[in-house]
Prior knowledge:
By secondary structure, the protein is α/β, with parallel strands linked by helices. It is 35% helix and 20% strand. It contains 4 helices and 4 strands; from the N terminus they run βαβαβαβα. The chain has a 4-stranded parallel β-sheet, with helices on both faces. The radius of gyration is 15 Å and the shape is globular. Mean pLDDT is 87; it is low at 1-16.
Amino acid sequence: MTTPLPADKLACSADLSKVLELTIIIPCYNEEAGILNTIETVQQYLSHRFPELATEMLLINDGSTDGTLAILQKAQEQYPNIRVISFPSNKGRGEAIKQGIRSSHGRYLIMLDADLTYDVEHIGEIFQVFQQEPKTDVV
């Protein structure tokens, strides 16, 4: 007998039969110049590489003083799988990541830098490890 998943683990998309599998957490601090490119790059990668997966992207605004928050809010309006969390002041990358973890709904969590220091292809490589080794906690 299987236990039903809690409601907060269901996808927020129209297809509620999909379990929310993957959360991408991206801390952002004064990323106005490049964050839109990052969001679009990650969205394109997820839709092409994992079209069958319910995913969410958590964008954590860490008290940015430039136009980052406005860009994040516009992206949230455009993409149903994006959620924005905003701190009123800078709390640091570590606190932004911890808040992302606490707020995530995905079964698997992957953290990315806002400037895509690591190529988005790493998402697939990390996710594959989680799939092949279900007891894996960290990659």
